[in-house]
Amino acid sequence: MEKRFMAIWFRHLMTDWLTLKQPELKEIPFVFATLDRNRIVITAANPVAEAQGVHCGMAAADAKAITTDLRILDHIPGKEAKLLRQLGLWCIRYTPIVMVDLPNGLILDISGCAHLWGGERGYLKEIVNKLRSSGYDARAAVADTIGTAWAVARFGKKTPLVEPGMQAQALLSLPPAALRLEPLILEKLQKLGFSIIRSFIQIPRTVLRRRFGEGFLLRLAQALGLEGEILVPLIPPVPYTERLPCLEPVRTKKAIEIAIQKLLETMCLRLQNEGKGIRKAILKCYRIDGKMVQAGISTNRGSHSVSHLVELFELQISKIEPALGIELFLLEAPKVEAIDLIQEKLWDEKPGLQDTALAELLDKLAGKVGANAIHRYLPAEHNWPERSIKQAASLMETPVTRWRTDRPRPVRLLRRPEAIEVMALLPDYPPKVFTYKGRRHIVEKADGPERIEREWWLDQGEHRDYYAVEDADGQRYWLFRSGHYDAAPQWYLHGYFA
Amino acid sequence: MANTKNDIISQLQKDILQWEGYRPPPAGKRKLVGLGPVEAAFPNGVFPLGTVHELVCANTEQAAACGGFVSGVLSILMQNGGACLWISLSGNLFPGALKAFGMEPDRVIFVNLTRDKEVLWVMEEALKCAGLAAVIGEMREIDFKQSRRLQLAVEQSRVTGFVLRNRSDKMGSTACAARWKIKPLPSEPVDGLPGLGFPRWQVELLRVRNGQPGNWIMEWSEGKFRPVEKELPEQQKQMAG
């Protein structure tokens, strides 16, 4: 399909915005100015100021001389980008692909959109009128290329609609500044007397290249449509998207379930054909009150199994509030991954972590209790007990080192060691009696000490001397003394042996 | 005549067992979990897999002992590469220690939760997943209805479940196949050396469906359970029959 682009130019973006906020400024000349090389330079002027001869790039002092009651405001860095982004998001109702064109424009890819508003004329009129009535002085133009649309929006004197293939004709009478050139090249062109594009468009390219460089030729070619131009959309389109509009707004659980089922069926069919699986999916529900509610799922492993994904979404349905009714469902899969199609095994005894059913179970659990409640541990090469295990990043990760069994370790290890009262017969002897939570335990047997040094490159503090002890009832504990045996050593209980 | 009556009764008992889901193991394919004499207490003399076991732990010391005991059993269940899910309330289980009981800690998926309700939901979902070797759930208490739900879940999937109960003051009946109590016992010095010996437990089977409750002393040494023959007090001897 032929591409068509629309360029929108906001002539007084910043000042329009401020006038909207403070309507009393409408009649007063005011400008935004910023410090530039020891001069205060005007960055934006409102129409009143412009009518009196103030323009951008002028020194504020000069402007003040022309217009005595000029109000000078501080330029707000980054404000344009923010404003344009908001305007661009608003424009998404007209086309899904909108690009912000700093400092004062928007580019819309309107291919195949205009007929919905009765042709390009009606489309353009609709957008410009809406923008103007909301207070922004906008000019727009439509052309086959971004360059020509940009040029006509800003410099065009005749119709804003450039017929397909007529870029060159539209550009002929425009000044060279319409080609989005750098100031240095513009100055050069002006010196050489090229005041309109017609005067140099016929000159051989080699000559132009020698004088003005490659960048100049690129801009010219882009405006004429000989070179492509990349459009960076404000909201990148999600490649895997399914829509389901509803004839009547729906608000029951069952209806939402059916919608999810239908959306997933079409999406999974497509994914299956491409050998891909969903890792993350978002269901967006557009309600008739203009709000959007969404629910998301994620999986441990790419999946295109409809039944599994439906199950995951079913856990989330309670989070979707239909209010007056949902009129459009949109299912997006922002994260997909290639999955190996595995042949079903005829005889599998006990599959381990690679089992699909297990991955599906964990997805489901993560949807209900949260993914951060689920852990798997691998051995880590640290002696410090708290650091001797680390969390596995994925189900596939296998231990790089072996689990150590050469030292006794308790089955239950307290998160934080708890202080105990201890009586030891001799320094560096295991305790004879210890009191924990008000209970006295008489130690019958003990092993140790096992000294574990702190890893000084990770943290500071005392080393620990661990003892495995057994009390008279046969209960086994892991105790340690923090630091050396000096005046008042502190003892802790850190774990329980089986 | 009396003989035939006995035969009929024993045959009927066998049938009932079968109807209840206890199939006698096919000859030569007896799956043992290495519990030795304890297994004899179960119907057909087989440790029932594919059911839910209930372990009562009154305090953290007993919970640690249960952890060790279950790990020992799991080491057999997970022998052929299976994975298991350990749902924990306290979150203080130390994976590094489980290796000592013969299981691969990296094949255990831990789920740390705070509420009994969540534990039960997760456990039920996990028990339905036939890909797991076992599911262990720690909870405060469980009532008959809840345990029945778990039992129904395992009947389809044949996964073995272990429920570790913290609260032992109220113990109503449950649908679990067996109720255990594991208490730590003083260890015996090894070869007369000072220090701690092998972990030793008092293994009590408080309740077994269609089996004989009993009381044993077990030790974990050299990677397997070892029953300890000890002079039991007279009263317990009678109980054990």
**CATH class assignment of the largest domain in chain A:** Alpha Beta
Alpha carbon gyration radius of chain B: 18 Å
Largest pleated sheet of chain A: 6 strands, antiparallel, barrel
How do the SSEs of chain B run, as a string of H and E?
Answer: HEHEHEHEHEEEEEH
Total discrete domains of chain B: 1
Average pLDDT reading of chain B: 83
Task: Give me the CATH architecture of the largest domain in chain A, please.
Answer: 2-Layer Sandwich
Provide the residue-averaged pLDDT of chain A.
85
Approximate shape of chain B: globular
CATH superfamily of the largest domain in chain A, called what? Reverse transcriptase/Diguanylate cyclase domain
Largest sheet of chain B: 9 strands, mixed
* Protein structure class of chain B: alpha/beta
Hey, which two chains have the biggest interface? Answer: A-B, 56 and 60 residues
How many individual helices of chain B?
A: 6
The figure for the number of domains of chain A is 4
Unreliable spans of chain A: none
The termini of chain A sit apart by: 73 Å
Report the CATH topology name of the largest domain in chain A. Answer: Alpha-Beta Plaits
The CATH topology of chain B is given as Rossmann fold
Please tally the β strands of chain B and state the result.
9
Task: Explain how this protein is built.
The complex is a heterodimer of chains A (498) and B (241). In chain A, helix 9 packs across helix 10 (214-224) and helix 12 runs parallel beside helix 13. Chain A contains 13 helices and 19 strands. Chain A is 28% helix and 30% strand. In chain A, the strands form five sheets. A six-stranded antiparallel β-barrel of chain A has the order 14-15-16-17-18-19. By secondary structure, chain A is of the alpha+beta class. Chain A folds into four domains: 1-237, Alpha-Beta Plaits; 241-338, DNA polymerase, Y-family, little finger domain (Dna Ligase, domain 1, 2-Layer Sandwich), CATH 3.30.1490.100; 375-406, no CATH class; 412-496, no CATH class. By secondary structure, chain B is α/β, with parallel strands linked by helices. Chain B has a single domain, classed as Rossmann fold, CATH 3.40.50. At the A-B interface, helix 13, strand 12, strand 14, strand 16 and strand 17 of A face helix 2, helix 3, strand 3, helix 4 and strand 6 of B. Strand 12 (374-379) of chain A pairs antiparallel with strand 3 (108-112) of chain B.
